[in-house]
Amino acid sequence: MIQTPLNAQLPTRLQALAHPLFEAKGIQAWLKREDENHPLIQGNKLYKLQFNLQTALAQNKTSIISFGGAHSNHLAALAAAGKLLGIPTQGIVRGQELAQRPETWSQTLIKAQQQGMTLQFISREAYRQKHSQAFLADLQARHPHAAIIPEGGTNQLAIAGLQPLAQAIDAQRPDWTHLFCPVGTGGTLAGLISHTQPHPNKTILGVCAIKQGDYLQNEIQSYLTPKPHNHWQLLTQFHGGGFGKISPQLMAFQAQIEAEFAIELDPVYTVKMMAAFFALLEQDRIPRGSKVLLLHTGGLQGRKQQKRN
Ligand SMILES: *Cc1c(COP(=O)(O)O)cnc(C)c1O
């Protein structure tokens, strides 16, 4: 059990998955159930927020500001964490048009606001500046006592926060050979890479949920310490049409996998990771005898909304 101000249920279980294809290909697979790590701050966001929250509290910050789109699991998690820890949160949301039209808000935004998060909507143009020095300096000047966390929560504190997850994985299944992880900004993948001892039999595979994600290769590299980390790969061909997009085939695949393993996936990230795993397995790109771990990064609030609509 790791100490956390958020009372997480750690470590989560490894669920063994049985499937005729796994038998045929001579591999074993497990799902690492990080969707079960916390009722409110679910999945990888728990780890990514951990040190960011601790640091903000230790530095007596009076609020936490971050960024996201209308369906941002990161903003949802931050809102819930802020409420739990009693620190105000503010979400800067892409899409000025949403400001006047709350009836078009996603469940994610509605819930974030219900948790006490203040929402500020900015134009897509302004949102693109969110990483620029000038934008951040201006924001900090207007909120001098706020901690500012980047989009998706990805920063060095987030990457450091993934250590307990990498450790739990190694403790639970030291002989794993493949670890699949969904990728948005690449922060979670970078965290797993940096906290996993390189080993000739182990590969960490990031599955990009966004189209044309090749630029992330360099970004992920830049998060890693200078020592060589050649035990990972970024798979960019499984975005399924683009971020937040899901094809009818992928929806059918999701329904099938959910029924077969009695699990829930989210349509943005984990379903694409599963599809990538099955595709590589079918193409015989996962050798016999492999022990495959699939990281369930949570995000199920997005899924519930999809069902309701
Ligand atoms: C945010 C998120 C990701 C992507 O994490 P990154 O660290 O940005 O790559 C993956 N899965 C789920 C469910 C998420 O909410």
Helix/strand layout:
Blueprint: E1 14-17, H1 20-25, E2 28-33, H2 44-58, E3 63-68, H3 73-85, E4 89-94, H4 107-114, E5 118-122, H5 124-127, H6 133-142, E6 146-148, H7 156-161, H8 163-172, E7 178-183, H9 187-194, E8 203-208, H10 216-223, E9 232-235, H11 248-261, H12 270-282, E10 291-296, H13 300-308
Parallel strand pairs: 2-10, 3-4, 3-6, 4-5, 7-8, 7-10, 8-9
Antiparallel strand pairs: 1-2
Helix pairs in contact: 2-3, 3-4, 11-12
Bound molecules: pyridoxal-5'-phosphate.
The site of pyridoxal-5'-phosphate (PLP) has 21 residues, from helix 2, helix 3, strand 7 and helix 9.
Detail the poorly predicted runs. none
Mean pLDDT: 93
Strand count, sense and closure of the main sheet?
Answer: 6 strands, mixed
Instruction: Give the strand order, joined by hyphens, for the main sheet.
Output: 1-2-10-7-8-9
Gyration radius over CA: 19 Å
Number of helices: 13
| Total beta strands | 10
Helix content: 40-55%
Listed once per kind, the bound small molecules are: pyridoxal-5'-phosphate
Please characterize this protein's 3D structure:
- This protein has 309 residues and is an alpha/beta fold.
- It contains 13 helices and ten strands.
- A six-stranded mixed β-sheet has the order 1-2-10-7-8-9. The protein has a four-stranded parallel β-sheet with strand order 5-4-3-6.
- The longest helix is centred in the N-terminal third of the chain and has 15 residues.
- It binds pyridoxal-5'-phosphate.
- Pyridoxal-5'-phosphate binds next to helix 2, helix 3, strand 7 and helix 9.
- The site of pyridoxal-5'-phosphate has 21 residues, from helix 2, helix 3, strand 7 and helix 9.
